[in-house]
TrEMBL record:
GO biological process terms held by the UniProt record: CTP metabolic process; UDP catabolic process
Region (Disordered): 609-717
Composition bias, Polar residues: 617-643
Protein family membership: Belongs to the GDA1/CD39 NTPase family.
The protein's name: Golgi apyrase
Lineage: Eukaryota, Fungi, Dikarya, Ascomycota, Pezizomycotina
Active site, renumbered: 146
Keywords in alphabetical order: ATP-binding, Hydrolase, Membrane, Nucleotide-binding, Transmembrane, Transmembrane helix
TM annotation in the entry: 532-550
Any one GO CC term of the record: Golgi apparatus
Gene3D superfamilies listed in its UniProt record: 3.30.420.40, Exopolyphosphatase. Domain 2
Taxonomy, superkingdom: Eukaryota
Gene coding for it: YND1
List of residues binding ATP: 183-187
Length: 717
């Protein structure tokens, strides 16, 4: 019986720290041998454990000016932890990915490249994990890629892929939208309804997954990111606006702070009566008026910016219309923390309710800061809630409400005052808990952190894609990954393979796994055929070198066997003929004597010494290999991909990573530095190019395509 499990390691290198996640999935070989028909028609079953993640601080972006220290001072603990969790006999077969987000995006290119180069070098030297290509295993991913991975993770945990009949949101729509908000940016990802998907097909990303039995499923997903719309960046912009509206004022009222709280514009608290409060620098004083706070934060949405490509939501950026009748969203990160860290007592067992949430935030923010400090000391909201969290929650809540309802357009549904827009239920206080068991998230918006005990992390989405790509493809099954939603069966130039391989030139791909081809087929395949001339030259040089090293006697013997003629001890040479240097050098004379050659009127005493080659031959290798960031591999080497990776720069609000004119338009998740070689393990599942048999294969962006019907068991230990 084949191996039951394979493992994968993903490092989320964020701005505040790096967290390693370990995942495990069942192999297709094992599932087929067990004849588990339930699992054959679904995506690979991935498991993780609460103890399988570990975080170190600070983030790798802090090593921008000292990249040589990132290994010993940052990665060492993470690698050691991962090696303790993964079975020793599986470490060399386990891929490791380090994907950096916001913090690294802000570094200058030279520093960013240096950090990533040192990360790769450390993994190669101090880790046995599989890392065949540092270009794709170690990257700074754009916000769009992060959002797409999050969309995959949320729908995987909610059974949006595997149980469409239990997640029918109307009109055959069965996937969930995904919202993520960090400190610097916010992301949205969703599959539009059929009408919008057809209307905005060019704006979608084609995402392709593969079931255990090898069948491909496709989704058209819209995903975008709003830089500067994260909670911390929004607060910074808000304070700048507040101070700009009151120039020269020493004490500026802030309705988004609890009553009486004094802070510097940079956020540090000022003790009452302190000399800093009476200095010349401006400072903020809380007034606790949450309604005013909502109005003050609204302009930060930039709704008044021109929309060059309607429709738009925020900051003049194009977004297909959202049909909340079928598009139901889950929100993670700040969407969860801001609604649950302090207000968890009221909301831990229920869906987000606008009216109830706003009422509780308003009550908290209108309290005196001195009273709130006493509750913090008593750990009224738990040991993890500190003064900074309480201080910031009023503004973050106002920003979240503005983003959800004024920006994205989520309906202001009050489950206590009115019935559910779909089910008509008057109160769903406990229904969400029951619904979590059958994945029944039917509200327009639901903040989540974990589903069935598994964290909704974009790292899980990355592993779902990778594990899916490792399933042997059925006939006519195309490559797993994502790229531009172009018509036809050819892979777009920006297509990102899930298992560590850049896209082939746009020749199409019927399958992407080398497992179905014999070794001679793979050598003669498209990815190897370009190497054949160089390989033949190398073999010729190697044969010549071995021939020269074997000595004159053996060379002469081999020559005689090849030509079928006997050679005299000494070779004659007519007058004017070539001196036979080539033959003498290659085969040598059988003796050091010479021969007298009489010809015409030549003097009988005229003679000439034959060339006598030395027995000692000196060979030198003049090739100077430039070793790029190529990872360890036990398989054949693939051609260099130098030049395929575009520079990842901070995207402008109007020109993101999907804009063909953008510097990052060549694809999502490609790191902005060049490396020398590219090697791929023989067990990589992303090697085959599309076969002509797929020409004419239909593909649509409709989220209803290729539904899976088999149930997905919950992820448990």
């Amino acid at each position: 019986m084949g191996h039951k499990h394979k493992y994968g390691v993903v490092l989320d290198a964020g701005s505040s720290g790096s967290r390693v996640y370990i995942y495990r999935y069942k192999t297709a070989e094992y599932v087929k041998e067990k004849e588990d028909t339930k699992e054959l028609g679904r995506l690979p079953k991935i498991k993780t454990k609460k103890s399988w993640n570990f975080k170190v601080k600070p983030g790798i972006s802090t090593f921008g000016d000292k990249p040589e220290l990132v290994g010993e001072e940052h990665l060492k603990e993470l690698v050691a932890f991962a090696e303790e969790q993964v079975p020793k006999d599986e470490i060399e077969n386990t891929p490791i990915f380090l994907l950096a987000t916001a913090g690294m995006r802000l570094l200058p290119k030279a520093q960013r490249d240096a950090v990533l180069e040192n990360v790769c070098a450390y993994f190669q030297k101090h880790s046995k994990f599989q890392i065949p290509d540092c270009d794709l295993h170690i990257q700074v991913i754009p916000g769009e890629t992060e959002g797409l991975y999050g969309w995959v993770a949320a729908n995987y945990l909610l059974d949006g892929f595997d149980k469409p009949e239990k997640n029918d949101h109307g009109d055959g729509h069965h996937t969930y939208g995904f919202l993520d908000m960090g400190g610097a940016s916010a992301q949205i990802a969703f599959a539009p309804n059929a009408t919008e998907a057809e209307k905005h097909a060019n704006d979608l990303k084609l995402l392709r997954l593969r079931t255990v039995e090898g069948e491909a499923i496709e989704y058209g997903v819209f995903v975008t990111t709003w830089l500067g719309f994260g909670a911390n960046e929004a607060r910074r912009r808000y304070v700048e606006h507040l101070l700009g509206a009151s120039p020269g004022e020493q004490e500026v009222p802030d309705p988004c702070l609890p009553v009486g709280l004094l802070i510097k514009p940079t956020g540090e608290e000022i003790e009452p009566g302190s000399s800093k409060a009476t200095g010349k620098l401006s400072h903020l004083i809380g007034t606790g008026k949450f309604t005013d706070c909502l109005h003050s934060a609204y302009p930060l949405l930039e709704k008044n910016k021109p929309c060059d490509d309607p429709p738009c939501l925020l900051n003049g950026m194009h977004t297909p219309a959202i049909d909340f009748g079928v598009n139901h969203f889950v929100g993670v990160s700040e969407f969860w923390h801001t609604t649950h860290e302090i207000f968890a007592m009221a909301h831990k067992d229920r869906a987000y309710d606008f009216a109830s949430y706003q009422k509780q935030v308003s009550e908290l923010c209108s309290r005196k800061w001195s009273d709130l400090e006493k509750d913090i000391e008593k750990e009224f909201w738990g040991s993890k809630v500190d003064a900074k969290t309480v201080e910031e929650v009023c503004f973050k809540a106002s920003w979240l409400i503005n983003m959800l309802h004024e920006g994205i357009g989520v309906p202001r549904v009050s489950l206590e005052q009115s019935g559910h827009p779909i089910t008509g239920e008057a109160n769903k206080t406990n229904a969400i808990v029951d619904g979590a068991e059958d994945k029944g998230f039917l509200d327009p918006f639901q903040a989540v952190n974990k589903i069935d005990g598994t964290e909704v992390s974009w790292t899980l989405g990355k592993m779902v894609l990778y594990a899916s790509s490792q399933m042997p493809p059925a006939k006519d099954s195309m490559a797993v990954g994502f790229g531009s939603n172009l018509p036809g069966t050819k892979l777009p130039s920006d297509f990102q393979f899930a298992s560590g391989k850049l896209a082939e030139p746009t020749t199409g791909s019927a399958s992407d796994t080398a497992g179905d081809k014999s070794w001679h087929d793979r050598i003669l395949g498209s990815s190897y055929s370009r190497r054949i001339p160089g390989l033949l030259i190398f073999l010729l040089i190697l044969a010549l070198a071995m021939y020269l090293l074997c000595g004159r006697e053996r060379r002469l013997s081999y020559w005689q066997k090849v030509t079928g003629r006997r050679t005299s001890p000494s070779w004659s040479r007519r007058k004017g003929a070539a001196p036979g240097l080539f033959s003498a050098k290659l085969f040598g004379n059988t003796s050091p004597s010479y021969e007298r050659v009489l010809e015409e009127a030549a003097d009988p005493d005229d003679f000439e010494l034959a060339d006598l080659p030395s027995d000692d031959q000196v060979y030198s290798d003049s090739s100077n290999s430039s070793h790029g960031r190529t990872g360890r591999s036990s398989g054949w080497a693939t051609p260099s991909t130098r030049g395929l990776s575009p520079d990842v720069s901070r995207p402008s609000p109007k020109k993101g990573y999907f804009d063909p004119s953008s510097s990052a338009a060549a694809g999502l998740g490609i790191t902005p530095f060049e490396r020398g070689g590219l090697t791929v393990r023989t067990e990589s599942r992303e090697r085959l190019a599309p076969a002509p048999s797929l020409l004419g294969r239909s593909r649509t962006g409709s989220p209803r395509q290729s539904p899976l019907v088999a149930p997905l068991k919950e992820m448990v230990d």
